[in-house]
């Protein structure tokens, strides 16, 4: 169905091809997962299937890409629209209409389908993706995860033969991600749809893939095979595979179920070991002995139009604390972060940050107290080059020249100074926005989905930097669906539902008692309270 024949793509001004000499075949009715570190060209290959590369992005495509027999060099994206449905990393760039129902119908209108067919497919898709309650909502009022589901739904309604998905679960809560992946599996198995997907959160998707293509770093070969074959040699792998490698399991398990079956002897070994260290002691240094309050809310309420986004939120954040806000898409996590940074005025209750009321404080004063890395990093980026963004960040924060650039290099090496921010991948843009906010070293750091688009290596570097900040006394509050990040880094988890906090406590207590938010290691080794592969490795050592 999809063929890459000696494909190389070189963008204008780039010294080297982004992808080079790719030979790949995706059979009809299979789900193939593209894996590999950030920057190896996964999004470029996906764009070549839909025709966006090179017709929209520019650059030079050498070799040949065919989809259902059509050569993408001679067929522009609109001439492939009846065959290929594409969802990119940024849902907002995908939308054409204003409301959910109109967006689901738009693609079918473009293809000239009849109204009865359109009505039936819209209803099917609303039910399939759990969007029925949102059908009349303006897209601009939805959370990032809800927008992601609408974007996926809008390409499902025309019933394309090929689906191209770039990080489709990156903004989804665990339950919603599972629903979407189950839908994709049904399309593959029951309707013969061909799916080509790039995804960094392998713990979510690896069990659904028929084949995995591990894209090479420069000078390395492309590796294609079954998930088990590729994961045995891959430098990027989910915790379940990491635990299997550590324990020497053969074959390597790809699912929690199979890992639990193999884990009997490991659980016996660990039962004789010291319990995992108190989460307060994680990372370098200790949390300050006398913690002071950096942010507090009391009976906080926020109403956005007819929607009561937050209700009765009472929360305290102290120095050195890392707090994860978790919950379903639309639960109010991003709204709470926006209220803490002064972007939203409370409807009721109070909020203070560093002794100030955020929405009444000038931005110049507030930047010394709190910084927010939003879910859409482009909101922070306005210069023409990465170097100009870093220079502006140093100036705004009154930091030493080179501070922002140094942070960016620590987080994600290899981003050139002359690169335009719009040419960065979603993960790279997020990393740049994070470096800009960290330049001011605010006492309170707010992160909205900080690992979206990041590979495992970049995530590890981020964890190291955030641990150091917490050890220095900074407080970190992150809204995240990444349960593995919460297990690795946080001291405390608060779960939101329908705008209210329904659980708040130490990370091990909250995540091990929740099937949705438990990390893979906790599920495999339950009832023992191990959360991460690194904890197990230290205990066995």
UniProtKB/TrEMBL annotation:
<protein>
    <submittedName>
        <fullName>ATP-binding cassette domain-containing protein</fullName>
    </submittedName>
</protein>
<keyword id="KW-0067">ATP-binding</keyword>
<dbReference type="InterPro" id="IPR050095">
    <property type="entry name" value="ECF_ABC_transporter_ATP-bd"/>
</dbReference>
<dbReference type="InterPro" id="IPR003439">
    <property type="entry name" value="ABC_transporter-like_ATP-bd"/>
</dbReference>
<feature type="domain" description="ABC transporter">
    <location>
        <begin position="2"/>
        <end position="243"/>
    </location>
</feature>
<keyword id="KW-0547">Nucleotide-binding</keyword>
<dbReference type="InterPro" id="IPR017871">
    <property type="entry name" value="ABC_transporter-like_CS"/>
</dbReference>
<dbReference type="Pfam" id="PF00005">
    <property type="entry name" value="ABC_tran"/>
</dbReference>
<feature type="domain" description="ABC transporter">
    <location>
        <begin position="295"/>
        <end position="523"/>
    </location>
</feature>
<dbReference type="GO" id="GO:0005524">
    <property type="term" value="F:ATP binding"/>
</dbReference>
<keyword id="KW-0813">Transport</keyword>
<dbReference type="InterPro" id="IPR015856">
    <property type="entry name" value="ABC_transpr_CbiO/EcfA_su"/>
</dbReference>
<comment type="similarity">
    <text>Belongs to the ABC transporter superfamily.</text>
</comment>
<dbReference type="InterPro" id="IPR003593">
    <property type="entry name" value="AAA+_ATPase"/>
</dbReference>
<feature type="region of interest" description="Disordered">
    <location>
        <begin position="267"/>
        <end position="289"/>
    </location>
</feature>
<dbReference type="InterPro" id="IPR027417">
    <property type="entry name" value="P-loop_NTPase"/>
</dbReference>
């Amino acid at each position: 169905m999809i063929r890459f024949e000696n494909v190389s793509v070189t963008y204008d001004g780039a010294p080297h091809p982004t992808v080079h000499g790719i030979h790949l075949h995706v059979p009809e009715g299979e789900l193939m997962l593209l894996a590999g570190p950030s920057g190896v060209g996964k999004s470029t290959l996906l764009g070549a299937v839909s025709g966006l590369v090179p017709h929209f992005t520019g650059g030079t495509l050498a070799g040949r890409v065919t989809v259902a027999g059509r050569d993408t060099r001679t067929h522009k994206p609109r001439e492939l629209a009846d065959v290929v449905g594409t969802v990119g990393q940024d849902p907002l760039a995908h939308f054409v209409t204003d409301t959910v129902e109109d967006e689901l119908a738009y693609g079918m209108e473009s293809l000239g389908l009849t109204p009865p067919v359109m009505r039936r497919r819209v209803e099917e898709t609303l039910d399939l993706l759990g969007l029925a309650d949102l059908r009349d909502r303006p897209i601009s009022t939805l959370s990032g995860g809800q927008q992601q589901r609408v974007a996926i739904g809008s390409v499902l309604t025309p019933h394309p033969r090929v689906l191209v998905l770039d990080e489709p679960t990156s903004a989804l809560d665990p339950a919603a991600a599972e629903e979407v992946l189950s839908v994709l599996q049904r399309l593959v198995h029951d309707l013969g749809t061909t799916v080509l997907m790039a995804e960094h959160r392998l713990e979510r998707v690896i069990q659904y893939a028929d084949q995995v293509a591990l894209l090479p770093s420069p000078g390395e070969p492309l590796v294609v095979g079954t998930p088990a074959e590729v994961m045995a040699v891959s430098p990027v792998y989910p915790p379940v595979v990491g635990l299997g490698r550590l324990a020497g399991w053969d074959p390597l398990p790809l699912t929690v179920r199979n890992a639990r079956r193999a884990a009997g002897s490991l659980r016996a070994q660990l039962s004789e070991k010291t319990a995992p260290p108190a989460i307060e002691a994680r990372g370098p240094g200790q949390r300050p002995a006398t913690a002071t309050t950096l942010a507090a809310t009391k009976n906080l309420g926020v109403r956005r139009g007819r929607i009561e986004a937050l209700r009765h939120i009472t929360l305290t954040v102290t120095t050195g604390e890392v707090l994860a806000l978790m919950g379903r898409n639309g639960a109010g996590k991003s709204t709470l972060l926006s209220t803490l940074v002064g972007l939203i005025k409370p409807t009721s209750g109070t909020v203070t940050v560093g002794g100030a009321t955020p929405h009444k404080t000038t931005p110049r004063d507030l930047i010394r107290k709190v910084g927010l890395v939003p879910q859409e990093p482009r909101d922070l980026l306005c210069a023409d080059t990465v170097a100009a963004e870093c220079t502006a960040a140093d100036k705004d924060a009154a930091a030493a020249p080179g501070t922002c650039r140094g942070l960016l290099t620590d987080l994600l090496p290899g981003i050139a100074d002359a690169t335009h921010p719009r040419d960065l991948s979603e993960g790279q843009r997020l990393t740049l926005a994070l470096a800009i906010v960290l330049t001011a070293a605010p006492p309170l750091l707010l992160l909205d989905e900080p690992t979206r688009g990041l590979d495992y290596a970049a995530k590890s570097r981020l964890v190291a930097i955030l641990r150091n900040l917490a050890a220095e006394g900074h407080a970190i509050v992150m809204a995240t669906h990444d349960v593995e990040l919460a297990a690795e880094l946080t001291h405390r988890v608060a779960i939101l539902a329908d705008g209210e906090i329904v659980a708040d406590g130490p990370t091990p207590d909250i995540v091990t008692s929740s099937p949705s938010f438990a990390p893979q290691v906790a599920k495999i080794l339950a009832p023992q309270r191990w959360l991460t592969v690194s904890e197990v490795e230290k205990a066995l050592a």
